[in-house]
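Example 3.
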Amino acid sequence: TVGCVAVDSYGNLASATSTGGLVNKRVGRIGDSPIIGAGTYANELCAISVTGEGEAILRATIARDVAAMMEFKGVSLEEAASYVIHECMPKGTAGLVAVSAAGEVAMPYNTTGMFRACATEDGYSEVAIW
Amino acid sequence: MGWAIALHGGAGDIPLSLTLGSRQPREEALHHCLQIGVEALKAKKPPLDVVELVVRELENIPQFNAGKGSVLTNKGTVEMEASIMDGRTKNCGAVSGLKTVVNAVSLARLVMEKTPHVYLAFHGAEEFAKEQGVETADSSHFITAENVERLKQAKEAHRVQIDYTQPLQNGTKEETSNTNGEVQLG
C-alpha cells in the first residue's frame, strides 16, 4: 500500500491511498484502502492514510477514528493517531501517516516497520523504515 | 501554521536484516516522492493535487505494492484499489478491482469530480476509465517476477499476507492461520 497526506499553509487538507491489496487474496476481495473512513479520511482537522492488514483496519475504521478523537475529545493529532494505532489495533496490523490543519505530522505504526517520509515548512524532514 | 506532507510505502513485518539491495531503492523512492510533494506544496499547488501527484509517483515504483508491482490475487491477477479525499469539502472518490488502469488514484479522483458517486468497482470502474480516457496497460505491466514468487510462497504456506511479510522457513507452522489460510490477527 502507498499513501500521502498533505496540508497547505492555509490549513487545507487532503489524503490519498492506493494498493494492490494482500498477497494471495481472494479475487473480489476489497480492503481498507478505498474505504473512506477506514484506510483514507480527511476533514477540516486532519488527513489520514492507513496501511497494514485491511480486514483489521476495516473493523476498526481507524482513519475516521483519528479524526473523531480530535473532533470530539479535542486531543492533538499525535495523541489521537498514537492511541488508535497502539490501543485500538491488534499488534502487528497497521500504521498510518497523518497531518493536521496546524501542520503537525504523525506516523505511528504497530508493525515491525513502515516505509515512511515527511517534511514540514519549518525545514524538518524525515525518511525512515523502522 | 505551515504546510506539511507525510507519505508511506506500506507497513508490515519488515526485517531489520533487510538487504541493502532491497532497502536502498525504497529509501531512494521515498526521498524522490517526498521531494516531489515538497516542491508542489512550495509551488502552492492545492493539497488534493499534491497527494494525487505523490501517490501516482508511488504507484509507478515497482518496489511498492500499488500500481506497477501490485501483489497478486489467488488467481495470479492484479486487482488494484485507491481512494482520495478533500478535507475542506469532504468530497471523495474510490475505485476497486482495477486490472488495467495505470494510476488508480487518478481514476478515484475522476470518480469524485466527474460522477455523483463515491465508489466504482470492477467492470464499472474499468468502463468509467475507458470513458475518461485514462492511461491503461495490459495486466502484465503490473506483474513483477518478485510478486509471482511471493504468491508462490504464500500459496505454499496456505496464507494471505500483508505487505512485506517474510516467507515462512521450512518447518515453521503458521500459527495465526485459520482453515481458510487467512491470517487472523484481528
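Residues 78 and 92 of chain A are 19 Å apart (CA to CA). The first strand of chain A starts at residue 2 and ends at 7.
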